[in-house]
Design a protein that fits this description.
heterodimer, A: alpha+beta, Glutaredoxin, five-stranded mixed sheet, 4 helices, 5 strands, B: alpha+beta, Heat Shock Protein 90, six-stranded mixed sheet, 6 helices, about 25% strand, globular
Chain lengths: ~120, ~180
């Protein structure tokens, strides 16, 4: 049964996570906000958020904070994702499925290139 | 919603938006009596009686009461479709408990869906919130308390990709064992 996930594994995860933090310059975090109201959920926001977390994990980007928000009244454009980089304008992306989410991580969060085609608002 | 897990995510979001610090999720599968019951109880701000009476009305919802959306009417419709019902208990300043009953074998009952992924994501998006999840299938049960995980993680949060992954894997294995018996 040693292959089973157990609470004891958390100690290893904790140590690894803390090591990563020490390596990094702890500046201001990039913030990603996923719309998770009823409309967002129905449109697939869970998969969107899962894809973002997985992509950040794969690229070892733990200085990005991913949070959720409720309905902002643009239900037909869900799943909505905001990317807020320190010192930059907030960019809102519309109809972000898992695939788009991964591209946003690669292009916007890592390479600092806003994907204008999918952005509906910048402020 | 295609999965009951998505309704659950919606209910959990309601609790979080109502300012809950502790949320209890219960899933009870009772094959003998052909019932599947989902309940979400929180210690959020709660609602008065008049509001409780209106939250199942889809046309009641306005922007100023954003913590109750179309979600509850959709859940009630899903439950009714398969011979079940939704009950809401709430008191201002105390909290809210929503229970939904479904006929487990009804052809119109949506599958439970990806609950491990759902909970991993909910926890990742709500640091500081305690989630206690109990799942019962017949005589067997599974309990997950996010505080037990937090206690071992110290300063590391549920939004860390490794932790989100662990939660998903841990619950998937737990549920698999629960269903297998």
């Amino acid at each position: 049964m040693s292959h089973l996930k157990s609470l004891d594994e958390l100690e290893k995860i904790r140590q690894r996570a803390l090591q990563e933090t020490r390596v990094r310059q702890s500046g201001q975090k990039t913030q990603v906000v996923v719309g998770m109201g009823t409309c967002g959920i129905a449109a697939g926001a869970r998969e969107t958020m899962a894809a973002i977390l997985a992509e950040l994990g794969k690229r070892n980007l733990t200085e990005v904070m991913v949070t959720q928000t409720g309905c902002i009244g643009l239900c037909d454009r869900e799943p909505l994702v905001d990317v807020i980089k320190p010192g930059q304008a907030k960019v809102t992306y519309a109809r972000v499925d898992a695939e788009k989410a991964r591209m946003i991580v690669a292009q916007h969060i890592i390479n600092d290139q806003v994907i204008g085609e999918w952005a509906i608002a910048t402020r | 919603m295609r999965e009951l897990a998505l309704h659950i995510l919606d209910l959990l979001q309601n609790s979080a938006e109502a300012g809950a610090l502790r949320v209890e999720l219960g899933v009870e599968e009772d094959p003998e009596n052909d019932i599947l019951r989902i309940s979400v109880g929180d210690d959020g701000r709660g609602m008065d009686e008049a509001t409780v009476r209106r939250v199942l009305d889809p046309f009641y919802t306005t922007r100023k009461t954003r913590h109750v959306g179309l979600g509850l009417p959709l859940l009630a419709a899903a439950a009714r479709r398969c011979g079940g019902k939704v009950e809401i208990e709430s008191a201002p300043g105390v909290g809210t408990k929503v229970s939904a009953d479904f006929r487990r074998s009804n052809i119109d009952r949506a599958p439970l869906g990806d609950l491990p992924q759902t909970l991993a994501i909910f926890l990742a998006g709500h640091p500081g919130l305690r989630l206690v999840y109990r799942h019962r299938v017949g005589p067997r049960d599974l309990t997950f308390d996010s505080d037990e995980v937090s206690a071992r993680l110290g300063a590391v949060g549920f939004d860390h990709p490794l932790v989100a992954d662990w939660v998903k894997g841990y619950l998937s294995e737990g549920l698999l064992n629960l269903q297998k018996g």
